[in-house]
Amino acid sequence: MNKLLLSFIVMFSTIGLSSTVLAAPQLGQEFDAVAQTLPTTDKSKIEVMEIFWYGCSHCYHMEEPLHTWLKNKPADVNFIRMPGLPNPSWAPMAQAFYTMDALGIQEKLHTKLFDAIHKQRTLDPTKQKSTINWIVNNSGLDRKKIEGTFNSFAVNAKVKRAEQVFRSSGATGVPSLVIDGKYITSGTMAGGNPQALQVADYIIKNIRASKKKVSTKKTSSKK
């Protein structure tokens, strides 16, 4: 863990963010360090990764505040989703996520898949066959192409990686938010899904301040 960044987190946790906030998020309470630091996809940006499962009702209810948050996401923040895999029964939804992504239909079907499970209640998220049938019926794509992608080496490799990421993050449930591969928060830790996003914003602010300070020091040392 970067000592300078950790000192920023602790400092801001002590003094609070502003007079309108009674208490700033606390390390070890509203958020924590990940079990193992995770690599990020874009080093030039601050990454926020949502670990989720389509079968999770809390993840379903996270969608509304998350969409609002994404509308105001700063340019220096990169958001990605990662299927959660604490046990094998969650695998079909991870395969569905990566299949839809590979076929370019993930954005089109993401909300519809959530709705099928939690609103219409027409899909069991633990069943592979019915999941494939659902993608076929809602995508308009060829069944063989979808089945081939669903069970492909590339998709299975990504599912295995998602399983490793879940363990390395130290997540105990979903939805969880991993910020820049270093910190983790969740609705359980923060007191609700909107609060978890506020905690993420808090951590992002401190990471940004830490990077700026490091950049300033490097610039000064070159003079």
The quaternary organization reads as: single chain
The number of domains: 1
User: What is the overall silhouette?
Assistant: globular
- Helix percent reads 55-70%
CATH superfamily: Glutaredoxin
Largest sheet report? 5 strands, mixed
Low-pLDDT parts are 14-22
Number of helical stretches of at least 4 residues: 9
**Mean pLDDT over the full residue set:** 91
- In the CATH hierarchy, the third-tier topology is known as Glutaredoxin
**CATH architectural group:** 3-Layer(aba) Sandwich
- Tell me the Rg in angstroms: 19 Å
Order of neighbouring strands in the sheet with most strands: 1-5-4-2-3
Tell me what portion of residues adopts beta-strand conformation. Answer: 5-15%
Order of helices and strands: HEEHEHHHHHEEHH
What are the defining features of this structure?
Glutaredoxin; about 220 residues; alpha+beta; 9 helices
Could you explain how this protein is built, in words?
The protein has a single domain (3-222), classed as Glutaredoxin, CATH 3.40.30.10. Mean pLDDT is 91; it is low at 14-22. Helices cover 56% and strands 11% of the residues. It is globular and about 60 Å long. Helix 1 (3-15) crosses helix 9 (193-222), helix 3 packs antiparallel against helix 4 and helix 5 (128-139) crosses helix 6. The protein has a five-stranded mixed sheet with strand order 1-5-4-2-3, sandwiched between helices. It has nine helices and five strands. Strand 4 and strand 5 form a beta hairpin. The chain is α+β, with helices and mostly antiparallel strands.
